[in-house]
């Protein structure tokens, strides 16, 4: 298990040595007819290459706006996808594109291209989410595979805090880059096989240990208190009858 975690660490390190960029999108939803409403691309140094809201063909559902905060009224001066399509092609051509949840973003890009009758550019993409799940090394007992983690949970777990608005494309792209840097710079802990159940058991054991420690402290206090009072009483008697 640790070997798999270590492989993820070295893969992240090697990946960031190459000519790579990080991409993130915000969308109208999760369905097969949904499309991009915002896209950000940054290089491996965190420099912004593209950061634009995209005016969708369909209206943005309120449920989606509640997540990323982008509304139809914000799109008056925004580009349409066909306006920045060539820029997207140029930026991704010949690059390794790192995406947190590659499968989802790739599908949304493909769906958006289809709406404008544009061919979907071929890109060499790597999924930071799957890489991180391997690096973290927690096994999902139901699927017997590495457990997936939300991006916001991953960066909080490792103490990565960024300024900006979560669930916006630039914030999430920057979060992905910071998480990649963390994996590359920090070898994983050499821990035993970890499953979701084992993790809960370890937490329970730690809680019980803490409770036992507190109980011992209380018992020691109860034991010594009357002895101390007795000695104080003896000392007072000596002073009184001296």
UniProtKB/TrEMBL annotation:
UniProt GO BP: DNA metabolic process
Q: Which Gene3D superfamilies match?
A: Ribonuclease H-like superfamily/Ribonuclease H
Q: Exonuclease domain: from which residue to which, for each copy?
A: 19-189
Taxonomically, which superkingdom? Bacteria
Q: What terms describe the molecular function in GO for this protein?
A: 3'-5' exonuclease activity; nucleic acid binding
**Where do transmembrane segments lie in this chain?**
222-241
A Pfam cross-reference name = RNase_T
The record's listing under CDD domains reads: DEDDh (cd06127)
Which keywords fit this entry according to its UniProt record? Exonuclease, Hydrolase, Membrane, Nuclease, Transmembrane, Transmembrane helix
Record-linked PANTHER family: DNA POLYMERASE III SUBUNIT EPSILON (PTHR30231), PROTEIN NEN2 (PTHR30231:SF4)
What is the protein's given name? DNA polymerase-3 subunit epsilon
Q: Which organism is it from?
A: Xenorhabdus koppenhoeferi
């Amino acid at each position: 298990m640790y070997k798999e975690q270590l492989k993820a660490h070295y893969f992240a390190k090697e990946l960031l040595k190459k000519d790579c960029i990080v991409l993130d999108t915000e969308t109208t939803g999760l369905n097969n007819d949904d499309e991009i409403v915002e896209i950000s691309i940054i290089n491996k140094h965190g420099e912004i290459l593209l950061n634009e809201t995209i005016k969708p063909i369909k209206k943005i559902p309120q449920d989606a706006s509640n997540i990323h905060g982008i509304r139809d009224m914000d799109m008056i001066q925004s580009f349409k996808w066909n306006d920045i399509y060539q820029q997207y092609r140029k930026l991704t051509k010949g690059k390794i594109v790192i995406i947190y949840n590659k499968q989802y973003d790739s599908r949304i890009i493909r769906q958006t291209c289809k709406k404008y009758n544009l061919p979907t550019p071929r890109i060499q993409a790597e999924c930071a989410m799957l890489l991180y799940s391997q690096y973290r090394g927690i096994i999902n007992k139901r699927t017997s595979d590495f457990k997936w983690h939300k991006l916001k949970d991953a960066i909080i777990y490792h103490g990565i805090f960024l300024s900006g608005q979560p669930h916006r494309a630039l914030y999430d792209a920057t979060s992905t880059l910071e998480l990649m840097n963390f994996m590359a710079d920090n070898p994983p802990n050499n821990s035993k096989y970890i499953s979701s159940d084992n993790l809960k058991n370890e937490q329970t054991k730690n809680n019980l240990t803490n409770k036992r420690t507190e109980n011992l402290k209380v018992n020691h206090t109860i034991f010594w208190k009357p002895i101390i009072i007795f000695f104080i009483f003896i000392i007072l008697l000596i002073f009184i009858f001296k």
